Here is the input.
Amino acid sequence: MPRMTNPAPTQEIADRLEREIPGSVAERTDQHIAVKPEALLAVASVLKNTPELDFDYLNWATAVDYSSHFMIVYNVVSLKNNLSLILKARCDNRQDPVVPSLTGLWKGANLQEREIFDLMGIRFENHPNMKRVFLWDGFTGHPLRKDFALK
Amino acid sequence: MGIEGIQKIGPITVSDPDKAEGAEIELMRRTCTEPISDPDRWTEEDLRRNLLVTSLDTVINWSRRASIFPLNFGLACCAFEMIATAASRFDISRFGMEIFRPSPRQADLMIVSGTLTWKMAPALRRIYQQMAEPKWVIAMGSCAISGGLFHNSYSVVPGVNLIVPVDVYVPGCPPRPESLLSGVQALYQKIKRQSIAKNDKPGPDTRDS
Here is the structure.
């Protein structure tokens, strides 16, 4: 019985990304591809707009706080090829973490990126509406960060 | 008459609705730090009651408690226990309160069933203020009583009695329908002792907004 969505061949895709945008891939395993944040937008654009890859759907986006750095994680899906790919972008700057927004490519990134901004404090450049979504305006801090102090 | 802790959330003149909401919540977080006292002063001083009014009280209190209109207000998982209480198995209509009103204007009992977040707090107070007198509040479950599991959280109000005065606390996580029915019975006992002869009304006079 076929699985609902198959894992994408990350090594092949990473090779292809390296060919198209040299120096974009920071790390690759059989499970995911990590790219440099400055290359994220170009990589995402290649993933979406190359006909053979055709990752047309952003399933979810989230972020992980590793204390030393943040990792923004995207799950993109190709509905035509029935493939699912985990794409990561590492962000080392804890003071002012900024990554490019992917709302221009996938509209569904809008809310997910606002949530990440709200709870993790990662700013998404060129996001159309970069403000808090769950917490209220005037809340200080970003509560899902590891260094957020509970009272 | 006003009750301690209930203050008018003053006119906030900010054009951005998100900013206005944030300012209102921040104001509540600053001002709502002390629990509002249980509005049970009218249950004291039985001896000072007028005999003539007492029999009238009996009738009024009987009619009030025999047909309470609860507000359809669920915040979290406790709401499902409240729904179960209202449904056929536990059947809250045995106590004359089968109709859960969808509008606060038509209800006189608010069952706060679940976790109250700071973002929801202004709405809760507004709904409470929209209810007509006489009105009662049941805090259902540990989250509503004290914040429960989340009392140290950044987003949860540690007890709805910081926001509105509470008549009856029903503990549990969530309380079983039997517990809620027991809380309703406790509220009946409270209403029984109410008197129209006093200015000291059961609910706080919060019709300022």
Notes: The beta strands of chain B are 70-71, 109-113, 136-140, 168-170. Confidence is low (pLDDT under 50) at residues 1-9, 199-209 of chain B. The interface with chain A takes residues 16, 18-19, 21-23, 25-26, 118-119, 152-155 of chain B (CB under 8 Å). The two ends of chain B are 15 Å apart (CA to CA).
